[in-house]
Amino acid sequence: MGYNFYTLSFYTLSFYTLATILHADLCHALSLLFVSKDRIMRVHDWSRVDDGIFHDFHHAWIEELKRALNGGLLPAWLYALAEQQVSEFGPDVLALQVPDASDRKESGEGNQDGGTGLLVAPPRVAITVQGPHEFYTHRQKSVTLRHASDDRIVAIIEVVSPGNKSSRQRLEAFVRKACALLQQGIHLMVLDLHLPTRRAPDGIHGAIWNNISSSDEDYHQPDDKPLTLVAYQSKMFIGVTAYVEPIAIGDLLREMPLYVNNEGYVSVPLQETYDRAFAAVPRRWANVLEQ
Asked: The domain containing residue 149 runs over which residues?
């Protein structure tokens, strides 16, 4: 398996830029005198900055999601791992792994006394749609995804980057891989914080769902909510259920369900992890996004 390597770069600022940041920081500090240090950040307009700035934030958010999941949200028989690449996804998707049978038995998976530690009540989201079971009758040829340890991948979180919509080829590759994962029974969460494009007028979810559903069930993005949080529950040979939460720039992020088996899910704290990741964005660019 090949891995991409990343470097940590340092930049100097022009005098004008530095003065602007210092002024903004002073105003920012004064406004926070009587406000909690742990601020809640609303969804930013990431089109205001270069793709590389979001790419840096993307890494941080994946890491915070991994910390939250491994820090107690997941039952003992599951773990989350940031992957460098999962076929057309990546770099940096978050994959949930399940150990082999002996490890699951020791950690208590399926223990009738302790339960699974998963939520089973129907998630509360704006839109819930069921895909046709025929989706599974046309399975694409694809390699089953496994970690190097042979632990099985059961779910993936993908934070969409601008590059996923930058060309028809890249968009189709993303959609193709998403459908292949779902056809393998791998559950999926897609977080798309970027405005629709000509190639994807209904966002990434619209492109995915329009490949899953019949033509009369196409998804159309609400005009006033152009961004999308979506969780896909994949029940083999029964159908894919999409739990969709359209959002807008300036909205707060709600918790979303991440299914890890056919019935149970964990609730992922998107807002809390987004806030922690954004705290690491350089002030020079955070000021641009917070204007």
From this structure: 43-281
286 lies in some domain = no
Among 49-53, 216-220, 260-264, which is the least confidently predicted range? 216-220
Better pLDDT: 97 or 47: 47
**8 Å CB contact between 153 and 145:** yes
Total domain count for the chain?
1
User: If you count DSSP H runs as helices and E runs as strands, how many of each does the chain have, helices first?
Assistant: 7, 9
Q: What is the CA 270 to chain-centroid distance, rounded?
A: 9
Indicate whether 129 belongs to any domain: yes
% the chain with pLDDT above 70:
68
**For residues 172 and 104, what is the distance between their CA atoms, to the nearest angstrom?**
36
CA–CA separation, 48 vs 60, rounded Å? 19
Provide the token pair at 163.
């590059």
Residue 92: the pLDDT is 53
116 belongs to a structural domain: yes
* pLDDT, mean over the chain: 77
- Asked whether residue 102 is domain-assigned, the answer is yes
> 251-277 burial by CB neighbour count: b if 16+ within 10 A, else e?
eebbbbbbbbbeebbbebbbbbbbbbb
Helices of type H across 32-184: 51-68, 101-107, 168-183
Q: Give the tokens for residue 263.
A: 């019935």
Q: How many C-beta neighbours within 10 Å does residue 54 have?
A: 24
CA end-to-end distance (rounded Å), the chain: 42
